[in-house]
Amino acid sequence: MRVADFFNTVDTFNGLQTGEDVLWWTGDARGVFKVNKAYKMMDHTIQHGTTWPWKQIWKSKIPHKVSCFVWLMAKEAVLTQDNVMKRGITLCSRCFLCGETAETVNHLFLHCKYTQQIWSIFLNRKGISWTMPRKVTEVLMSWEEEGVHAKDRSRWRIIPSAIWWAIWKERNSRCFESIV
Protein backbone atom coordinates (compact mmCIF):
# COMPACT_ATOMS: atom_id res chain seq x y z
CA MET A 1 0.00 0.00 0.00
CA ARG A 2 1.34 3.40 -0.92
CA VAL A 3 1.45 6.25 1.59
CA ALA A 4 -1.23 8.21 -0.33
CA ASP A 5 -3.57 5.19 -0.26
CA PHE A 6 -2.98 4.82 3.44
CA PHE A 7 -3.93 8.45 4.12
CA ASN A 8 -7.04 8.12 1.93
CA THR A 9 -8.09 5.11 3.98
CA VAL A 10 -7.49 6.98 7.23
CA ASP A 11 -9.43 10.02 5.96
CA THR A 12 -12.49 7.91 5.14
CA PHE A 13 -12.61 6.41 8.66
CA ASN A 14 -15.70 7.75 10.42
CA GLY A 15 -14.41 7.06 13.87
CA LEU A 16 -16.37 5.49 16.66
CA GLN A 17 -20.12 5.59 16.43
CA THR A 18 -21.85 7.73 19.00
CA GLY A 19 -24.45 6.22 21.23
CA GLU A 20 -24.68 3.99 24.23
CA ASP A 21 -22.15 1.19 24.65
CA VAL A 22 -23.51 -2.32 24.64
CA LEU A 23 -21.83 -5.42 26.07
CA TRP A 24 -21.87 -8.22 23.53
CA TRP A 25 -19.84 -11.42 23.70
CA THR A 26 -19.05 -12.60 20.18
CA GLY A 27 -18.02 -16.07 21.34
CA ASP A 28 -21.66 -17.11 21.69
CA ALA A 29 -24.56 -16.70 19.26
CA ARG A 30 -26.74 -15.30 22.07
CA GLY A 31 -24.03 -12.93 23.29
CA VAL A 32 -23.72 -14.72 26.64
CA PHE A 33 -20.24 -14.88 28.14
CA LYS A 34 -19.04 -18.29 29.34
CA VAL A 35 -15.59 -18.83 30.85
CA ASN A 36 -15.26 -22.27 29.25
CA LYS A 37 -15.93 -20.86 25.78
CA ALA A 38 -13.52 -17.96 26.38
CA TYR A 39 -10.79 -20.37 27.49
CA LYS A 40 -11.30 -22.56 24.41
CA MET A 41 -11.13 -19.49 22.15
CA MET A 42 -7.99 -18.26 23.90
CA ASP A 43 -6.46 -21.73 23.76
CA HIS A 44 -7.08 -21.92 20.02
CA THR A 45 -5.72 -18.41 19.47
CA ILE A 46 -2.56 -19.04 21.48
CA GLN A 47 -1.77 -22.50 20.21
CA HIS A 48 -3.35 -22.38 16.72
CA GLY A 49 -5.12 -25.64 17.23
CA THR A 50 -2.49 -27.32 19.41
CA THR A 51 -3.77 -28.74 22.68
CA TRP A 52 -2.84 -26.57 25.64
CA PRO A 53 -1.52 -28.40 28.76
CA TRP A 54 -3.98 -26.81 31.19
CA LYS A 55 -4.54 -30.00 33.21
CA GLN A 56 -0.81 -30.50 33.73
CA ILE A 57 -0.58 -26.91 34.98
CA TRP A 58 -3.76 -26.37 36.99
CA LYS A 59 -4.75 -29.88 38.11
CA SER A 60 -1.39 -30.93 39.59
CA LYS A 61 -1.05 -31.03 43.35
CA ILE A 62 1.47 -28.20 43.55
CA PRO A 63 1.29 -24.79 45.26
CA HIS A 64 -0.78 -22.25 43.35
CA LYS A 65 2.21 -19.92 42.95
CA VAL A 66 4.09 -22.74 41.20
CA SER A 67 1.10 -23.40 38.91
CA CYS A 68 1.06 -19.69 38.00
CA PHE A 69 4.80 -19.82 37.38
CA VAL A 70 4.52 -22.91 35.12
CA TRP A 71 1.65 -21.23 33.25
CA LEU A 72 3.92 -18.22 32.61
CA MET A 73 6.66 -20.61 31.48
CA ALA A 74 4.29 -22.33 29.05
CA LYS A 75 3.37 -18.93 27.63
CA GLU A 76 7.12 -18.07 27.52
CA ALA A 77 6.35 -15.03 29.68
CA VAL A 78 8.56 -15.68 32.73
CA LEU A 79 10.88 -12.72 33.22
CA THR A 80 14.01 -14.25 31.82
CA GLN A 81 16.49 -11.75 30.43
CA ASP A 82 15.10 -11.93 26.89
CA ASN A 83 11.61 -11.08 28.18
CA VAL A 84 12.97 -8.22 30.31
CA MET A 85 14.70 -6.86 27.19
CA LYS A 86 11.40 -7.02 25.27
CA ARG A 87 10.10 -4.52 27.85
CA GLY A 88 12.74 -2.01 26.81
CA ILE A 89 15.38 -2.63 29.48
CA THR A 90 18.88 -2.95 28.07
CA LEU A 91 20.77 -5.98 29.34
CA CYS A 92 23.61 -8.20 28.29
CA SER A 93 21.52 -11.34 28.07
CA ARG A 94 23.52 -14.29 29.34
CA CYS A 95 22.15 -17.33 31.12
CA PHE A 96 22.88 -17.01 34.84
CA LEU A 97 23.46 -20.74 35.09
CA CYS A 98 25.81 -21.53 32.20
CA GLY A 99 26.84 -18.04 31.06
CA GLU A 100 27.14 -19.30 27.50
CA THR A 101 24.06 -18.10 25.63
CA ALA A 102 21.10 -15.74 25.81
CA GLU A 103 18.69 -16.49 28.63
CA THR A 104 15.31 -17.51 27.22
CA VAL A 105 12.58 -19.55 28.89
CA ASN A 106 13.29 -22.64 26.81
CA HIS A 107 17.06 -22.34 27.20
CA LEU A 108 16.98 -21.79 30.96
CA PHE A 109 14.53 -24.57 31.80
CA LEU A 110 15.29 -27.15 29.10
CA HIS A 111 18.54 -26.66 27.19
CA CYS A 112 21.07 -25.00 29.50
CA LYS A 113 23.89 -27.46 30.27
CA TYR A 114 23.27 -26.95 34.01
CA THR A 115 19.56 -27.69 33.57
CA GLN A 116 20.28 -30.70 31.36
CA GLN A 117 22.45 -32.15 34.13
CA ILE A 118 19.57 -31.87 36.60
CA TRP A 119 17.14 -33.53 34.18
CA SER A 120 19.73 -36.19 33.34
CA ILE A 121 20.35 -37.07 37.00
CA PHE A 122 16.64 -37.46 37.64
CA LEU A 123 15.85 -39.39 34.46
CA ASN A 124 18.88 -41.70 34.81
CA ARG A 125 17.91 -42.55 38.41
CA LYS A 126 14.48 -43.56 37.11
CA GLY A 127 16.00 -45.53 34.21
CA ILE A 128 14.35 -43.28 31.64
CA SER A 129 15.90 -42.45 28.27
CA TRP A 130 14.33 -39.24 27.01
CA THR A 131 15.11 -36.55 24.46
CA MET A 132 14.33 -33.07 25.74
CA PRO A 133 11.64 -31.36 23.65
CA ARG A 134 12.16 -27.86 22.26
CA LYS A 135 9.55 -26.08 24.39
CA VAL A 136 8.11 -26.16 27.89
CA THR A 137 4.61 -26.88 26.53
CA GLU A 138 5.99 -29.92 24.71
CA VAL A 139 7.46 -31.25 27.97
CA LEU A 140 4.13 -30.82 29.72
CA MET A 141 2.22 -32.51 26.90
CA SER A 142 4.65 -35.43 26.61
CA TRP A 143 5.19 -36.13 30.31
CA GLU A 144 3.58 -39.55 30.19
CA GLU A 145 2.12 -41.47 33.08
CA GLU A 146 2.33 -44.82 31.33
CA GLY A 147 4.16 -47.39 33.41
CA VAL A 148 3.71 -45.28 36.55
CA HIS A 149 1.84 -47.06 39.33
CA ALA A 150 -1.54 -45.44 40.10
CA LYS A 151 -0.50 -44.45 43.65
CA ASP A 152 2.56 -42.61 42.26
CA ARG A 153 0.84 -40.68 39.46
CA SER A 154 0.14 -37.50 41.41
CA ARG A 155 3.81 -37.34 42.44
CA TRP A 156 4.93 -38.12 38.89
CA ARG A 157 2.87 -35.21 37.50
CA ILE A 158 4.59 -32.64 39.71
CA ILE A 159 8.17 -33.57 38.77
CA PRO A 160 8.64 -31.10 35.86
CA SER A 161 7.14 -28.26 37.93
CA ALA A 162 9.34 -29.13 40.93
CA ILE A 163 12.49 -29.23 38.79
CA TRP A 164 11.61 -25.94 37.07
CA TRP A 165 10.81 -24.24 40.38
CA ALA A 166 14.20 -25.34 41.80
CA ILE A 167 15.97 -24.08 38.65
CA TRP A 168 14.17 -20.72 38.91
CA LYS A 169 15.11 -20.36 42.59
CA GLU A 170 18.77 -21.15 41.77
CA ARG A 171 18.74 -18.73 38.85
CA ASN A 172 17.32 -15.96 41.05
CA SER A 173 19.90 -16.63 43.77
CA ARG A 174 22.65 -16.18 41.20
CA CYS A 175 20.97 -13.14 39.65
CA PHE A 176 19.92 -11.18 42.74
CA GLU A 177 22.12 -12.49 45.54
CA SER A 178 25.30 -13.11 43.52
CA ILE A 179 25.39 -16.69 44.77
CA VAL A 180 27.38 -18.98 42.50
UniProtKB/TrEMBL annotation:
One Pfam match: zf-RVT
Residues in Reverse transcriptase zinc-binding domain copies: 33-119
Domain of life: Eukaryota
Protein name: Reverse transcriptase zinc-binding domain-containing protein
Organism of provenance: Solanum stoloniferum
